[in-house]
């Protein structure tokens, strides 16, 4: 679904209420804006969400795997 928001004085953008409810964004919350040069993506930036993203990124990775990969890099 596409939502539209107007940029007002000072670069302020109001996130539509439906999206705030859907993503649990409340007054005072911090959000992250990411750009790929063409688009701007907005995501929640609370500690719980950040930790969940980190856990997902590290899933299946271990110290043993890391050391084995480094040993291969070093030709051991």
Question: Which helices and strands, and how do they pair?
Answer:
Blueprint: E1 7-8, E2 12-13, H1 17-23, E3 31-35, E4 40-44, H2 47-58, H3 63-74
3D architecture notes:
- The protein is of the alpha+beta class and 76 residues long.
- The chain is built from 3 helices and 4 strands; from the N terminus they run E-E-H-E-E-H-H.
- Helix content is 41%, strand content 18%.
- The protein has a two-stranded antiparallel sheet with strand order 1-2.
- A hairpin with a 3-residue loop joins strand 1 and strand 2.
- The longest helix is centred in the last third of the chain and has 12 residues, at 47-58.
- The protein is elongated, with a radius of gyration of 19 Å.
Overall pLDDT score:
88
Helical coverage, percent range: 40-55%
Shape: elongated
Output the helix-strand order: EEHEEHH
Biggest β-sheet description:
2 strands, antiparallel
Kindly name the structural category: alpha+beta
- Report the uncertain regions: none
Number of strands: 4
Output the radius of gyration.
Answer: 19 Å
Instruction: Quote the distance from N terminus to C terminus.
Output: 52 Å
Tell me the strand percentage band. Answer: 15-25%
**SS field, number of helical segments:** 3
Q: Identify the strand order in the major beta sheet.
A: 1-2
Short description:
With about 80 residues, the chain is an alpha+beta fold.
Question: Which key features would you list for this structure?
Answer:
two-stranded antiparallel sheet; two-stranded antiparallel ribbon; elongated; 76 residues; 3 helices; alpha+beta
């Amino acid at each position: 679904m596409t939502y539209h928001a107007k940029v007002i004085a000072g670069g302020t953008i109001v996130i539509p209420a439906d999206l705030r409810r859907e993503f649990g964004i409340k007054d005072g919350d911090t959000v992250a804006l990411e750009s790929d040069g063409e688009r701007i993506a907005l995501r929640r930036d609370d500690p719980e969400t950040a930790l969940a993203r980190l856990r997902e990124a590290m899933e299946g990775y271990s110290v043993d795997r890391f050391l084995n990969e480094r040993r291969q890099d070093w030709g051991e």
